[in-house]
Design a protein that fits this description.
The protein is mainly alpha-helical and 348 residues long. It has one domain: Formate dehydrogenase/DMSO reductase domain (Formate dehydrogenase/DMSO reductase fold, Up-down Bundle). It is 78% helix and 5% strand. It has 14 helices and 4 strands. The strands form 2 sheets. A two-stranded antiparallel ribbon has the order 1-2. It has a two-stranded antiparallel ribbon with strand order 3-4. Helix 1 packs antiparallel against helix 2, helix 1 runs antiparallel to helix 3 and helix 2 crosses helix 14. The longest helix has 33 residues, at 3-35. The protein is globular and about 65 Å long.
Length: 348
């Protein structure tokens, strides 16, 4: 295995981790108006991700930094082409983070209502736009290779409307619903009382819709980018999603959350393998103009020395990060009970 291939999969694993972890954060935020009917219940829901949301969000920073260092041409072309969409994601993430920290700074119900709305919007918008972005990467963008003084430069020739094509919008709707379902399973696993009951009910209804939409997107992907690997990973994603919805029906919260997490893993790997198995070469950003204008593992990667240095750094740092994150989830593994929130409210 070459270093280019190794780092292609490392970047993929980092994005898988981000979508699994921040994915349920997005889902918890989107579930707020559906499972919480008063301030105590809203605090109960928000507290389920209170200790971990900011740590989950750092995965996208690490993934983006790794993409920049390992595949600078991929990074620059993608981020310049999807600049407006990525800025909207960034603004939404900032809005959501500020809302988590500021909603409790004032006892006014109007104050809290505004920030609760920001949490919902700041969760739903990235969940939608990340799916649009990844679907466009897989499906190809209007990129033109232009010869410069120091080599080829890849120029995006579309606009924001170019990104909002039917396949990409279906991909965005799929991630929106999948993250929503993933987050609802997390709420059911981490709460008790009426909030948990509503999360179970919402999970049942939402799960069925998610299965239909996700199956449509995966089927479209298989037809457009057929390979045995893509078919196998798509089927695994479908089985995990059905299993997660079924586990929610029988109130096996831990299993339901695990299965939806695995759904995200296999769904992202499906799209990643579409790129890796692309013919005649491993394309990281296909061009709708043809292979000659596409970004591949070869023309998008950094030098061998850079990739070698990154491999040593990653081998040391990644296990430490995983151990720390695992320890954090273990410390905050207990349910957030309504009685605990009520006691804090009375004490205040």
């Amino acid at each position: 295995m070459t270093l280019e291939i190794l780092w292609f999969f490392i970047v993929g694993v980092l994005f898988v981790g981000y979508f699994v972890l921040d994915g349920f954060d997005f889902g918890v935020g989107m579930s707020l108006p559906f499972v919480a009917k008063n301030d105590v219940e809203r605090r109960q829901v928000i507290n389920t991700i209170g200790p971990v949301w900011d740590m989950n969000e750092t995965w996208v920073i690490v993934a983006g930094a790794s993409l920049f260092a390992a595949f600078p041409e991929w990074y620059s072309t993608l981020f310049s082409g999807a600049y407006l969409a990525l800025v909207l994601i960034l603004l939404a993430l900032i809005l959501r983070g500020v809302s988590f920290e500021y909603r409790h700074q004032n006892k006014s119900s109007r104050w809290k209502a505004w920030f609760d709305t920001f949490i919902v919007v700041g969760s739903a918008l990235p969940a939608l736009l990340w799916g649009v972005a990844v679907a466009n990467i897989v499906n190809g963008l209007p990129i033109r290779a232009e010869q410069g003084v120091i080599g080829s430069a890849f120029v995006f020739e579309g606009s924001l409307l170019t990104l909002l094509n039917p396949y990409a919008l279906l991909g965005g709707l799929t991630t929106l619903l999948l993250f929503f379902t993933h987050g609802v399973q997390f709420v059911a696993m981490k709460t008790d009382g009426p909030v948990r009951d509503r999360a179970h009910l919402l999970g049942r209804r939402l799960g069925l819709i998610t299965i239909v939409v996700a199956a449509s997107f995966l089927l479209w992907t298989i037809i457009a980018h057929f390979s045995v690997t893509v078919v196998v990973l798509s089927l695994l994603a479908a089985v995990m999603l059905i299993a997660g919805v079924a586990a929610n029906w029988v109130q096996r919260d831990g299993l339901a959350f695990t299965f939806t997490a695995l759904t995200v893993v296999f769904a992202v790997l499906t799209l990643w393998m579409v790129l890796f198995t692309s013919y005649p070469t491993h394309m990281v950003l296909p061009s709708t103009y043809g292979v000659a204008d596409s970004l591949t593992l070869t023309n998008a990667s950094s030098s061998a020395n850079t990739l070698s240095f990154m491999t040593w750094v990653g081998a040391i740092a990644l296990p430490i990060v995983l151990l720390y994150q695992g320890w954090t989830f273990w410390v905050f593994r207990k349910r957030v009970r309504r009685s605990d929130i009520e006691q804090v409210t009375v004490a205040a």
